[in-house]
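agent> call fold_tool(seq_1)
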Amino acid sequence: MIRMALIAVTAATLAGCTFPQPYEDLPNSPYQWQRRQEGIERREAERQRLCAIMNKDTARYERDCTRPGDPVR
């Protein structure tokens, strides 16, 4: 009984190591941090540009363009 439990715990532990991480690894160098930050800024600028031309009464605008903490319009 104890042996089966030990095997199950070991299998579960090893299985956790084989699956990829659910998040993106953080950059290691200043250059990588800068590229990451520029990518975030580009995506945010594109989101804002699309939201500026989108019909504000649609569900898509509500889903894609509002953020928690935004003032109620």
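agent> call fold_tool(seq_2)
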Amino acid sequence: MGKGGSASGTTAVERLGPLAATIPLDAKDVTKRSIRESIPPHLFKRSYVKSLGHVALDLCWVAGTWVAALMALRVLPGFCAPLVWCAYWLYQGINCTALWVLAHECGHGGFTDSRLVNDIVGWLLHSSLLTPYFSWAITHAKHHHYTNHMTNGETWVPSTASPDKASVKFAKSAAGTWRRIVVVALLGWYTYLLTNATGAKQNAGQSHFSPSARALFKPKDANLVRASNLGMLLMGGVLAWCVSVWGASAVCFNYLVPQTVCDFFLCAITFMQHTHEAVPHFDAEKWTWLRGALSTIDRSMGPHVDWRLHHIVDSHVVHHIFSEMPFYGAKEATPYVRKHLGVYYKSHFGTAVGGSEFLGYWKDFYECMHKAVVVGPGEDGFLWFR
């Protein structure tokens, strides 16, 4: 039996806690319009100065972190080098993720009022981070439209396999969980881009780099996919030139490792924003756009990292409802939306580990990867992790 109900008639909320609260199909007091009306109108306004200023600031963070690491390597004893490099890789990975988030804002139209400016900035940033800008923006829009939809969902759609299956049992073991994490960290992002892994089953094998991937793109999107591929090729050329000048190890240490950290952050953050054992998924009959959008979970990596990542982690509920809102508006709008949604607002701020919310986030990530593997139907008709 799924977690949606039990023989004793207990509700999902009683069994799993407040995250299981799901908006009724006939809800009249909470609609997209009512949520919008609960937010001060000025928070929807986009600013060229603020948005472009954040790009400039993020580029300064990238440059400053790189220079600081090089200086540390010069002045500290040689045995400190591994620690310096590890610190550089982690923090530069956060810096790269911050720039990636701004490019993601461009794809949504939440960066400025100009589509041309958005696309130029987004294409430049995403290409420099080895992401196909237009291609990913197109499929990401589908993710927003079909959040937690079992048939049409775009990312991290869970399996419906039996929990008694040997492969599922292994995946939920400690060894299986760590294997999943390592695969996601090293291969997850580009496996998704190349094969649409974790997306809807009917779209399996479809590539973000193929203009003819009909499950992902419409014929009119072909040139946008080609433009995305061009950006990737140009960045590949830049990296090849850098290798010829400074060597492969320098490019790997200074760019590729932080880039891999960024890719892992993207996969992990998306997973955590929409996955918790107490949050349901829906089949076509039970799904609505609002139910999907309100299945998004606000979390936290700690004040500094949340700020560095432009609050994509701790204001994601608002972002999913109003993706065209600038991120600085979404953060300010979150308290208004939380108050209006009441029990339907989802957040999970885990216990800090060693006083660190950042470490606590990754502890929660491990727990979710460990528990949230397959879903099955509950008595309420929703699909719950089991």
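agent> summarizing second result for user.
DSSP finds 15 helices and two strands in the chain. The beta strands are 375-377, 383-385.
agent> awaiting next instruction.
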